[in-house]
Write a structure and sequence with these properties.
By secondary structure, the protein is α+β, with helices and mostly antiparallel strands. Helix content is about 25%, strand content about 25%. The protein is built from five helices and 17 strands. A hairpin with a 6-residue loop joins strand 9 and strand 10 (about 190-195). The radius of gyration is 17 Å and the shape is globular. The chain binds 2-amino-4-trifluoromethylsulfanyl-butyric acid and cobalt (II) ion (2 copies).
């Protein structure tokens, strides 16, 4: 059974209970999501051949500190960085390190900033210099999948409609959807109810209601969907070592549709779209 509670009354995750947020929550998420998106914008010019992901991590940390925010991943379950940097066949939770990025790499940067207690969670793909046509295509399809998922996120629909829309886009392009990681409720908690699967059947799952706030963050692979976790306990990679991409927004369900909290202030969310227009 699913129950709903007024988010103002709720402090930590309770299995099967989905918080419903009011105007204060939406305002908090606008601010936190906006700052996260500004930080991801700032990183666009910093991602280039020769730069280490450790440097990107430092830039994200400094940005957070300078804006009165805290990176949610820092010391989260033993994680020790401000961002996740997932390169090429890394699906998610790649850790910043002192190895330099190389021309042709594709890297997902995932950042969650806490502002006044609200968590803005977003990630984007960053091409490192010139990338291959197939990498470009993977990134395009990943963004299209996220967009399709967001378009399906309407009051009265179900979480399964979001998953089905994403799966349809990805599999229609002969790519695959990772099963092992899901989107999640977000707000005054980093990971809350509901889980948002990036595959599924229309009309199934949890009904979407105004006031629900969650992420959609599909991971799309060029090859098979299977992942494994490396011995560091964090880094998830594709089992077949094919390329993987991800994009993430934090969104809120309104009376009539959806509000995206992590839109890029500079219009840089999809790097390939901005390349074409420049
Ligand atoms: N930001 C990730 C998400 O989208 C979570 C990262 S948790 C970490 O849910 F510990 F790996 F950083
Ligand atoms: Co994230
Ligand atoms: Co997330």
């Amino acid at each position: 059974m699913i129950t709903f509670v007024d988010a103002a009354e709720k402090s930590r995750r309770t299995q099967g209970v989905i918080p419903l947020h009011g105007e204060a929550g939406f305002a908090g998420m606008r601010k936190a999501g906006g700052l996260t998106a500004a930080a991801l914008d700032m990183l666009v010019d910093e991602v280039k051949p020769g730069v280490t992901t450790a440097r990107l991590d430092r830039l994200a940390f400094d940005f957070a500190r300078d804006h009165g925010a805290l990176p949610a991943t820092l010391f989260y379950k033993g994680y020790r960085y401000s961002i996740c940097t997932s390169i090429n066949h890394v699906v998610c939770h790649g850790m910043p390190e002192d190895r330099a990025l190389r021309e042709g790499d594709i890297v997902n940067i995932d950042l969650t900033l806490i502002v006044d207690g609200w968590y803005g969670d977003s990630s984007r793909m960053y091409p490192v210099g010139e990338i291959s046509r197939k990498a470009e295509r993977l990134i395009e399809v990943t963004y299209e999948s996220l967009e399709a998922g967001i378009r399906a996120a309407l009051p009265g629909k179900h979480t399964g409609d979001i998953g089905a829309a994403i799966q349809h886009k990805a599999e229609g392009a002969m790519m695959s959807v990772v099963r092992d990681f899901v989107g999640h409720g977000v707000g005054q908690l980093f990971h809350d109810e509901p889980n948002i699967m990036h595959f599924g059947k229309p009309g199934t799952g949890v009904p979407l209601k105004p006031g629900m706030i969650f992420t959609i963050e599909p991971m799309i692979n060029l090859g098979r969907p299977d992942v494994k976790i490396l011995s560091d306990g964090w880094t998830a990679v594709t089992r077949d070592r094919t390329l993987s991409a991800q994009a993430e927004h934090s969104i809120g369900i309104t009376e009539t549709g959806v509000e995206i909290f992590t839109l890029s202030p500079k219009g840089l969310f999809n790097p390939l779209a901005s390349r074409k227009s420049s």
